[in-house]
Design goal:
The chain folds into 2 domains: 2-95, Rossmann fold, CATH 3.40.50; 102-141, no CATH class. 43% of the residues lie in helices and 13% in strands. The protein is built from 4 helices and 4 strands, in the order βαβαβαβα. It starts with a strand and ends in a 21-residue tail after the last helix.
Length: 141
């Protein structure tokens, strides 16, 4: 399985995908889960696809870590997956839906809001996303 995000010029952002992949793997029990970035960073979808095949898979699941089904889901990721698959005849693949409208996302967004409000009020530490940025605060200007 490949979990793919957009990719960023900010290394901290790219490393967060690695952390998510680790959490996903630990929680779900999937034995092969690789991170990939669509662009701007490594590993690429091709690199992750190759790693999955090297580890013995014959079916690759490409899961976009995107909120909504935009151009990257409709065109870019399927094209990059198809290119990667050309190197592996007999290996099938699927590009799954992005996160989309899912009621559990309401809980995730609400949890983040509550955490940030608690931190801004001085009642909690910064979350891992905001740590050290100074962004989780109330602005008056």
């Amino acid at each position: 399985m490949i979990i793919v995000d957009h990719g960023s010029r900010r290394e901290e952002s790219n490393l967060m995908l690695n952390e998510f992949v680790k959490m996903f793997k630990d929680k779900t029990g999937y034995s092969i889960v690789e991170p990939a970035h669509m662009e701007l960073a490594e590993p690429s979808i091709r690199d992750a696809f190759n790693l999955c095949v090297q580890k013995g898979v014959t079916r690759v699941i490409v899961s976009p870590f995107f909120l909504f089904p935009g151009r990257h889901w409709h065109r870019d990721i399927p094209s990059l997956a198809a290119e990667a698959a050309k190197d592996h005849p007999g290996v099938s693949y699927i590009v799954t839906a992005p996160l989309g409208l899912h009621e559990l996302l309401v809980d995730v967004v609400n949890s983040r809001i509550i955490d940030c409000l608690r931190h801004a009020a001085g009642d909690a530490d910064e979350c891992a996303v905001c740590a050290g940025t100074g962004k989780c605060r109330f602005y008056t200007e």
